[in-house]
């Protein structure tokens, strides 16, 4: 897909609670879950939506910011329930899927000339980081994998691959147990940060589920190719801390921790996605995924 084709074939769906807004600028269909056509007349232009989804393999929460112009009052009121589940699906028709799942944290509507702009800010795992706590004592000889599981469970999110990753062992320096026992008290996320750093693991929350990886390892997903022929935009650039920055047409299947193959004139090899940003505007040129990667081991 190149040139003028970049503006076509885009799709976007945002669901907050029981309310859904679906937009396909190609066919100029813009509807809410009440079945109403919303925004300006579809024969003129589709509803304007600007969005940014930021995801990382770090334990800091993934974030989504969405601005929708001129939403009907009925729809806007039904969507402004803080804490409601927020799901965002986007991409091109041939590569469309879920790019974010979290909780709505904040919404606001402001007037800008003839436009009413409603902003939605959501996060994935922020509530768990802020509120989950643990206060537990583990006896001498307690297995590190069991302690890690208890701390992870206290976060009160789905375990994802955490149990399997902890059971796999092979922790840094070969440590397997707390010979003198240990008492853990405080925020679950802070304690999990310290334990995973000590044991050579990294954790994050992806779409409401824990993701745990050994440092430098990748998630078990299909390795995708990023090249000029598969949607790469411009040339990859080497940034700080040897992170390679690469931009592609938006692909919903890109995922933090995933291994990808980058093929360009300067770089040709396998890399691990450390962070990514999906960025789109139904009235602009952006419908892209920006990634920061490191060479995969």
Explain this structure to me?
This protein folds into three domains: 120 residues, no CATH class; 79 residues; 72 residues, Beta Barrel (Elongation Factor Tu (Ef-tu), domain 3). Helix content is 14%, strand content 47%. It contains five helices and 20 strands. A hairpin with a 5-residue loop joins strand 19 and strand 20.
Ordered list of secondary-structure elements with their pairings:
Layout: E1 10-16, E2 19-24, E3 29-32, E4 49-56, E5 62-69, H1 73-79, E6 85-92, E7 95-112, E8 115-124, H2 126-131, E9 133-138, E10 142-143, H3 144-154, H4 162-167, E11 177-178, E12 182-187, H5 188-199, E13 201-206, E14 209-214, E15 224-226, E16 232-238, E17 244-249, E18 259-263, E19 268-281, E20 287-295
Parallel strand pairs: 15-18
Antiparallel strand pairs: 1-2, 1-6, 2-3, 4-5, 4-19, 5-8, 6-7, 7-8, 9-12, 10-11, 13-14, 16-17, 17-20, 18-19, 19-20
Could you spell the SSE succession in H and E letters?
Answer: EEEEEHEEEHEEHHEEHEEEEEEEE
Average predicted local confidence, pLDDT:
88
What fraction, in percent, of the residue positions are helical? Answer: 10-25%
Contiguous low-pLDDT stretches (5 residues minimum) are: 1-7, 39-45
Strand residue content: over 45%
State the domain count.
3
List how many beta strands DSSP finds: 20
Shape: flat
Report the C-alpha radius of gyration, rounded.
21 Å
> Which structural class should the secondary elements be placed in?
mainly beta
Regarding quaternary structure, what we see is single chain
Number of helices: 5
Q: What distance lies between the first and last C-alpha atoms, to the nearest angstrom? A: 31 Å
Largest sheet: 14 strands, mixed
């Amino acid at each position: 897909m190149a040139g003028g084709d970049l503006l076509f074939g885009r799709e976007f769906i945002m669901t907050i609670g029981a309310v859904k807004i679906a937009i396909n600028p190609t066919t100029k269909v813009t509807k809410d879950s009440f079945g109403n056509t919303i925004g300006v007349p579809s024969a003129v232009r589709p509803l304007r939506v600007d969005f940014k989804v930021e995801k990382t393999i770090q334990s800091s929460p993934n974030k989504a910011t969405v601005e929708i112009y001129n939403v009907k009052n009925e729809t806007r009121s039904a969507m402004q329930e803080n804490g409601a589940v927020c799901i965002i699906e986007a991409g091109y028709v041939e590569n469309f899927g879920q790019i974010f799942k979290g909780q709505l944290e904040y919404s606001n509507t402001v007037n800008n000339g003839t436009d009413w702009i409603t902003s939605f800010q959501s996060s994935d795992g922020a509530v768990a980081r802020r509120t989950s706590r643990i206060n537990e004592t583990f006896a001498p000889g307690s297995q590190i994998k069991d302690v890690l599981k208890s701390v992870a469970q206290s976060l009160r999110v789905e375990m994802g691959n955490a149990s399997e990753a902890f059971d796999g062992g092979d922790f840094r320096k070969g440590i397997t147990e707390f010979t003198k026992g240990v008492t853990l008290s405080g925020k679950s996320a802070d304690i999990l940060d310290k334990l995973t750093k000590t044991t050579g693991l990294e954790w994050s929350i992806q779409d409401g589920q824990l993701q745990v990886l050994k440092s430098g390892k990748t998630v078990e997903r299909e390795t995708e190719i990023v090249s000029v022929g598969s949607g790469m935009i411009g040339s990859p650039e080497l940034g700080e801390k040897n992170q390679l920055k690469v931009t592609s047409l938006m692909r919903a299947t890109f995922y933090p921790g995933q291994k990808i193959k980058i093929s360009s004139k300067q770089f040709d090899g396998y890399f691990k996605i450390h962070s990514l940003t999906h960025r789109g505007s139904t009235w602009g040129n952006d419908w892209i995924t920006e990634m920061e990667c490191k060479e995969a081991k």
